[in-house]
């Protein structure tokens, strides 16, 4: 409890102290200075102690949330998707504002955890072909992340493990629900958020190809190819679409597929994938669109770090069931300058994070194939 109490911030008001007036002698300033410090000390001593019942209530909620999170992750790894969804629902219920004491104002980790929970519920629904339910959960994730209303399309960069994967996944779900206009909008938003990532162009190409706009799909795949000529996903999709358009005859060698095979032997099982309607799409997405998977960044829940204790008596006019807090954001930053240092640092961060994800073997998608992901 001592650790938890030190983690929670006190919200209190310092007494109004008039500024010291300038004087010609230090003797006249000392009494006012002493008075100033004494008032500050009195304010600190008047700070209310956090009740033990409050701490115990938050700790109890934290324990329940932790149990549901671990159970959900366990079910994901065992591919028991409906059970995972059930535990995630219970996790969200345990984090409801009604469950907390009215004096509790959650920290940013709580908002981040809510985003990840909605996202993984959406993924679980996609695994069992419940795409309408999946689209609703991705919408909840996007709204809980509180992204900008209009995507920046003039150079904005975003970390690819939050809002960008949610938009990409929802585009996939919208295609399966025959909401093509919405799917194109989400795919385009993903492109705007992470324009240097070849995966997002593959997502939009898959949307175009799903509605038989294969030449438009090729335009996006060519953009992806310019970013990375060894991008396995791009090579698989472009080879399949060119073949369906008659650009590669049966007697000719498919250069894109040959190159993909050299880069990743497993790619040979997906040479017929060209749109979201292919039954191999769930496995294809997991294996070749790694940067568009949002993995668990929170496995140990701590509801005390960054949280605040706001006593009722201190804020009589504040509506405590609607606490003011900074929303969790996806990492979208204002348009960066043209200087090479700023943009290169962002790209370096994204590359490092992508490699870390590939190297991980604790994701929900089974064994990772590090050779299937090409570093760009």
From TrEMBL:
TPR repeats lie at residues 164-197. This is Uncharacterized protein. It comes from the Eukaryota. Gene3D superfamilies: Tetratricopeptide repeat domain (1.25.40.10). Residues 1-31 are annotated as: Disordered. Signal peptide: none annotated. InterPro entries: TPR-like_helical_dom_sf (IPR011990), TPR_rpt (IPR019734). Keywords: TPR repeat.
């Amino acid at each position: 409890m001592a650790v938890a109490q030190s983690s929670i911030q006190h919200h209190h008001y310092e007494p109004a102290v008039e500024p010291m007036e300038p004087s010609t002698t230090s003797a006249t300033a000392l009494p006012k200075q002493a008075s100033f410090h004494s008032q500050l000390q009195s304010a600190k001593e008047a700070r209310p102690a956090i009740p033990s019942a409050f701490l115990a209530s938050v700790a109890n909620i934290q324990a329940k949330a932790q149990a549901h999170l671990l159970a959900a992750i366990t079910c994901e790894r065992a591919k028991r998707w409906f059970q995972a969804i059930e535990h995630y629902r219970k996790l969200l219920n345990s984090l409801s504002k009604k469950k907390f004491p009215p004096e509790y104002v959650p920290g940013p980790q709580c908002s981040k955890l809510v985003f990840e929970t909605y996202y993984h519920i959406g993924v679980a629904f996609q695994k069992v072909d419940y795409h309408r339910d999946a689209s609703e959960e991705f919408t909840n994730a996007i709204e809980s992340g509180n992204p900008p209303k209009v995507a920046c399309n003039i150079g904005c960069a975003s970390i690819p493990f939050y809002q960008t994967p949610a938009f990409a996944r929802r585009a996939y779900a919208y295609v399966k629900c025959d909401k093509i206009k919405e799917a194109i909008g989400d795919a385009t938003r993903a492109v705007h958020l992470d324009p240097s990532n070849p995966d997002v162009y593959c997502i939009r190409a898959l949307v175009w190809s799903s509605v038989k706009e294969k030449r438009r799909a090729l335009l996006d795949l060519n953009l992806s190819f310019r970013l990375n000529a060894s991008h396995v996903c791009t090579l698989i999709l472009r080879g399949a679409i060119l073949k369906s358009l008659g650009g590669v005859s049966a007697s000719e060698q498919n250069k894109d597929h040959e190159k993909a095979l050299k880069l990743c032997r497993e790619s040979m099982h997906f040479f017929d994938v060209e749109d979201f309607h292919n039954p191999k799409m769930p496995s294809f997405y997991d294996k070749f669109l790694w940067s568009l998977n949002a993995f668990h960044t929170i496995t140990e829940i701590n509801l005390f770090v960054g949280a605040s204790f706001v006593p009722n008596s201190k804020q009589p006019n504040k509506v405590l069931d609607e606490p003011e807090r900074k929303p969790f954001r996806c990492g979208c930053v204002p348009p960066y300058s043209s200087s090479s240092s700023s943009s290169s640092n962002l790209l370096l961060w994204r590359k490092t994070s992508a490699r870390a994800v590939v190297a991980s073997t604790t994701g929900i998608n089974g064994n990772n194939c590090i050779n299937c992901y090409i570093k760009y």
